[in-house]
Design brief:
9% strand; alpha/beta; 6-stranded mixed beta sheet; Uracil-DNA Glycosylase, subunit E; binds uracil
């Protein structure tokens, strides 16, 4: 056993010397953006299917090092994603979407939370298997307190319907819950402050698949700095959950030539959904 451990240690040391420390792609934040909370550890009372009822999973690896639950592939995605929420955030203690929404309505996390007309928390089926993630509310959404209700929202509804989803069947939320003035791009600090709310929504809703619309939503969630062309057309792994990114409907209104690749993306999404959830 000792020999085996020594061999493992030396193999790992060799590997690290060649490759540098292992950094999973999905957990690598773009500089300053969407930082999944730095090494947040949580107590190990989870409900992994691999876990025996009274045999807690070890919180350390083979070498006695503390494990970050977000990086533990034996845990369910929702536990891993919940572990991204900073330890000192009140979000950790909430058990329902209603509690989270109340917190969002009542709390100023960034200056935009003071200038908004309404917080735009999210809408749809709280048990949806598919979650749509946009960037931030625009003027219409700010007025109504609901995501994707303007022209872009109407096009999003049509895109969903084209592959057999009704708006009410899915859950729709944004990275930012407050409107940036003049619809400017979210600042990295704004994303960092608000994205734990989305982590909590994902952890509570437990969708099987995520669709990010637009480059900002995709990059913010995945911690990347890629072009939409590089992000789209395939599934990314977000702590065990498949994520597709495609064009933002507002971009499609300005560039109708992108409708075709969007159609390809959502067909792929639908096929993967049917595999995971079963045909409806
Ligand atoms: N664009 C977004 O990204 N989200 C909305 O809610 C509306 C427009």
């Amino acid at each position: 056993m000792l020999v085996l451990l020594q061999e493992l240690r030396s193999a790992l040391a060799h590997e690290l010397a060649i490759q540098g420390p292992y950094v999973p792609i999905a957990a690598t934040p773009a500089a300053g953006v969407a930082a999944p909370a730095p090494s947040v550890f949580r107590s190990n009372t989870g409900s992994s299917p691999l876990e025996e009822a009274d045999t807690p999973m070890p919180t350390t690896d083979l070498f006695g090092n503390e494990m970050d639950p977000a990086e533990d592939p034996t845990l369910p995605p929702y536990e891993r994603i919940a572990a991204l929420i900073p330890e000192n955030s009140p979000l950790r203690s909430f058990n329902t979407l209603a509690e989270v929404e109340q917190y969002v309505n009542d709390t100023v996390l960034i200056p935009l939370d003071k200038t908004r007309l309404n917080a735009v928390f999210g809408v749809g089926n709280p048990q949806a298997d598919l979650m749509i993630i946009g960037e931030a509310p625009g003027a219409d959404e700010d007025r109504k307190g609901e995501p994707f209700v303007g022209r872009a929202g109407q096009l999003l509804n049509k895109i969903l319907e084209a592959v057999g989803f009704q708006r009410e069947d899915v859950y729709i939320a944004n990275i930012l819950k407050s409107r940036p003035p003049g619809n400017r791009d979210p600042e990295p600090e704004e994303v960092q402050a608000h994205i734990p709310i989305l982590y909590k929504q994902i952890a509570l809703i437990q969708p099987k698949l995520l669709l990010c619309v637009g480059k900002t939503a995709g990059n913010s969630l995945l911690g990347k700095r890629s072009s939409l062309a590089a992000l789209r057309g395939k599934f990314h792994d977000f702590y065990g959950l498949p994520v597709m990114a495609t064009y933002h409907p507002a971009a499609l209104l300005r560039n109708p030539q992108w409708k075709r690749p969007t159609w390809d993306d959502v067909k792929l999404l639908r096929a993967h959904y049917d595999n995971l959830v079963g045909q409806s």
